[in-house]
Prior knowledge:
CATH class: Alpha Beta
Strand content: 25-35%
Helix content: 25-40%
Strand order of the largest sheet: 1-4-3-2
Radius of gyration: 27 Å
Order of helices and strands: HEEEEHH
CATH superfamily: SecB-like
Structural class: alpha+beta
CATH topology: Bacterial Protein-export protein SecB
Number of strands: 4
Number of domains: 1
Shape: elongated
Number of helices: 3
Distance between the termini: 53 Å
Low-confidence stretches: 1-15
Amino acid sequence: MLARRAITTPISNRKQNPIMAEEGDVLTNLDNATAGNGADNLPVAGLLSQYIRDLSVENPKAPESFQWTEQPQIDVQFNIGARPINEEITEVELKVSASAKNAQGTAYIVELAYCGLVGMRNMADEQKHAFTYAEAPRILFPFARRVIADAVRDAGFAPLLLDPIDFTAIYMQQLQAKQAQEGAGEAPAPGGEA
């Protein structure tokens, strides 16, 4: 335990000579006039809000599909899109489409557009792009995953539990593929798809 000692300063001197703790103590001089107060120059990024833009659930063969015993083929597709709202806010959209089909027909189709408003300030364009297409989808995915699972369950089927996705690895693969195409002189592929 650290021993603390009392420092006494006459009341008349406290305003002009703030009490300073010894070096290594947790106390600091907060009355430092030389430090810029309120300077907003550090990079900042975060999720401001999230919401369901669109959710569609189709159960086209109900109630017959509840009697099917054949295991369905599950197809899941993802797409990431973004659109700027203003200089500091971007809407990131995670689209997920899931369907279950077998020889007897389509059991269900669920399509979700799950969005998040992302605030980014004082960041280089490369950092903004990486946050928009890798980090923001990583933050949004668990919530979109829950919406999909609940929608499939509410359609009368066992919940579809999507495996985690490494959006950073997908982003890096697409970035490398784009660089390879540009190096070969081909037109770059459209970005933002995962």
